[in-house]
Amino acid sequence: MEEVKNNQQYKVRTIDYNCDAAQSYGVYQNEEEYNLYDYVSSLSISCGFHSGDPMKIQKALILAKEKNLCSTAKGDFYDFKYGRIYYTRQGQGAPLLLLHNLDTISSGYEWSKILKKLEKDHTVYTLDLLGCGRSDKPSLTYTNFLYVQLLTSFIQDMIGEKTNVITSADSSSIAIMANQMNPDLFDQIILINPSDIHQMKMETNRLQMAIKNILFAPLVGTALYNFYVSEDHIRSIFDKKYLSRPLQDNKKFTDLYYQSAHIHKSNGRFLYASKKCSYT
User: Fold this and answer.
1) How far is CA 275 from CA 18, 57, 103, 167, in A?
2) Taking the model in full, what pTM does it have?
3) pLDDT for 123-149, tens place per residue?
4) What sign does the CA torsion over 184, 185, 186, 191 have?
5) Distance set, CA 7 to CA 3, 4, 10, 169 (Å)
6) Among the four residues 109, 126, 166, 265, which has the most C-beta atoms within 10 Å?
7) pLDDT per residue over 43-64, tens digit each?
C-alpha cells in the first residue's frame, strides 16, 4: 500500500485498526463494542474522566488482555538468517528443546501444560518455528531443509551443547533429518505422534508447484488461508483430528490458535502453501 505526501510516495508497511473502548457508563451500556475486539489491532480505552466507568474499563482491559494471548513478554527472539525466531528458556539442568507441530496455527504454546514438570530437571527451550506463532513469517518456500538449518543453528548458537529434543507430529521429520546430518548436536530424540513414514518421503510434482504459486497469490491465497485459519475451522480440526472429546465452547483455546495463525496478518499462507504442496 502506498500513500502520497508532499508529492512523494511512501510505502505504508502496516495499518493500525484502532477502536475507542469502554466509552459507555452507568445505564448507558453498549455490550456490542466487545465484538469489535476480534477485528482491531489496538484499543484506546477510556480513562474514566470524560467517559466510561470503573466496571466498563476493567472489563475492557481484561478482554483486551485475553485477546493478546500470544504475548512475547516471557520470551526472546533469536536472529535466524531468514527471520526472527521467538523462543522461551526456563528451568535448570540438561537442555531439552521442544518443537511444536509444524502447522500455521501452532506455536510453542502446545507445551505450556507440561513445562512446569519438565523444568524441574531440564533447561527447557520452546520455539515458534519460522512461519508460525510469534516468529517471522517471510514470503518464501518452506522446506524441511530450511527447518533443519534453523534447528541446527539454534542449538549451536543458543544452547551450545548436546541437546535432547521432543517433537510433535509433523516436526518429527525435522529432528530426524537434523540428527542424520549433525549427530553430535543431539542426545536423545522423542517423537510424539510422528508423521507417517510414507508422508515424510513425498516429493513435490509439477501440479503441486502450480498450486503453490496460486496459494502464494495475494487474493486467492489469502482467501483460502483465512478459511483454513477461521475459528470454526480451527475448532473443527481439533475436534476431528486431535481431541478425544469435542472442544465445544473453549473460547480461550480457539482464540490462542486463531491469534497464532493471524500474527503478521496473512503471511502464514506461505507455510500453509508449502505444506499443502509437500515441500515440508
Assistant:
1) 34, 43, 8, 17
2) 0.72
3) 999 999 999 988 999 999 998 899 999
4) negative
5) 10, 6, 10, 53
6) 126
7) 777 776 666 677 677 666 656 6
